[in-house]
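Re: your question about Heme haloperoxidase family profile domain-containing protein

S., sorry for the slow reply, the queue was backed up all week. Below is exactly what I fed in.
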Amino acid sequence: MNTLANHGFIPHNGKGLTQPIVTKGLADALNIGPDLANFLFAGGLLSAPQPLLGSFDLNMLDQHNFPIEHDASLSRIDTFFGNNRPFNQTIFNQVLAFYDGMENATIPVTSYAKYARVQDSQKRNPTFTYGPREFLLSYGEAALYLSVLGDPTSGIAPVKYIQTFFEQERLPYNEGWRTPTQQTTLNSVGNMIGRLYQDSPESLPEGLEVITTGAYRDAIAGYNPVTGVLRNATCAAVRTC
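Result:
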C-alpha cells in the first residue's frame, strides 16, 4: 500500500482510504480483482478507531499482530526489537540470499525464503507469535508479490522486480515491469498459497487442518481462520482476540 501511495494510485498522504479508493488503486496499479481488493480493504478498515465511518489511514495498519502486521515479516523487524515501520535491509537480505544467482523467483525457492524468516524470528524473538492467522497472512504476502510482480499462475517473478518493490517501495517500471494482464484474484492467491505450502518444510500451525481460500479470506478480513471469531481494534488492543 505504501508503494501505491508513492505512485499516486491512492492518496500520497495515505489518509482517508475508502473502499472505492482502495479497490480502484489496487486494480489500476496491480490488476487485483475486486473480490480480493474488497477483503484487503475490510482487513484495513478493522484498524480504524471508528470503522463505521468507512475509511482508514495507512499508519493505522502497523498495530502489532493486527490487522495485517505480524512477526517474521519479509522486510521489517519484529516489533519486539523496535520500530517495525521502516524497511530493514538486513532482514530482507535473508530473503534475497535464497534468490542468489537466480534471474527469476519461483514458488519452491520463495517458500523456503519465507520459512527461513519464520525460523529466524522464532529463534531470536522471545515474544514470537505465529498462529493460523499469521501463517496464512505470511503465505498470502509471498503469493501476492509473486503474482503482481510476475505471473499469478506460474508464480515466476523477476528477482530485480522483487528487489525494487521492497527496497525502494516503488513499482519497477524502470526495470521493465508493467501492470499484469492477468488478474490476481482471491482464488488465484489461495491456490498459490497452497502451492507455496506444498513446497515448504513448514508444518501447519495448531488448529489449522487444511489450507483453503476461505481460510485465507477470513484471515485478511480479520476473522480467526480456525474459530471464525471477528477481530476488531478493541479486542486486539486488550488482547482478547
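Residues 71-237 form a domain with the Chloroperoxidase fold (CATH 1.10.489.10). The chain has a mean pLDDT of 91.

Happy to talk it through on Thursday.
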